[in-house]
Protein: CUL9 protein
Organism: Dryoscopus gambensis
Amino acid sequence: LRLLPQQRYLRTERAEVSALERKRNVLCCLITRILKAEKQLHIDNLVFRVIDACQKGELGPGVQFLSFCCHSVDVLSCLLHLLNQGYLRRQEERPHVLEY
């Protein structure tokens, strides 16, 4: 007997997981490329530049990829991930400025 409906939202397809991982990898690459070039940047400016690059489909000079929809929440999530991994850091006197 099955009394409860199947919870489809708990089962994530492998293709969806793979697509999310690819998106996160692209965002992390964009963030690091932008900060490598700028050395330090206000977090708001960085988010807007990453979103703009996603819409244009540009990973960097001469490197193109398919553009995709990117939201500030996605970028901020990747920023937190990179901060926790130690790839980025905040300035102590100005915590809203990130450095590579």
